[in-house]
Amino acid sequence: MQSDLIALCKSRGLTIGTAESLTAGLVVSKLAEVPGASAVLRGGVVAYATDVKHSVLGLDVTLLDHVVSEAVVTQMAIGATRVLRTDLGLATTGVAGPDALDDQPPGSFWLAVHHAPSNTTMTKYAHIQGDRGYVREMAAKGVIALALECLADPN
Description:
Layout lengths: L1 H11 L3 E5 L5 H7 L8 E6 L3 H6 L14 H15 L3 E7 L13 E8 L4 E8 L4 H21 L3
Helix pairs in contact: 1-5
């Protein structure tokens, strides 16, 4: 799936950056596994700590009371495109567990893809069962799939 995203971005001349909390660099790592990814992949920001979401990605501090939210993941994706100067920003935030966060149970996460050229953002919420590794893996795969969906959308 990540090879499909890299190939599609190459064919369209689009660049990719990530802003990751829940996945802590797993998304950018998966993309970097693809031979030739350097043609489109500019980098990633691991904003695991809440204050990094504000200081590096520029999120409004008022949003950070509830980091597992659509508003936060949307701003993270937009921040990735701005900070890394990319066409696409892929973002993840959520709860891997074992404890709840923001009144969200473990396995809850938000994904976002911002397409800077059209100034549009697609988001998706999911709640799955599984251990920390499984939740993080599914979130990483999910945001890559969402990016492919975003690029397939004619709007």
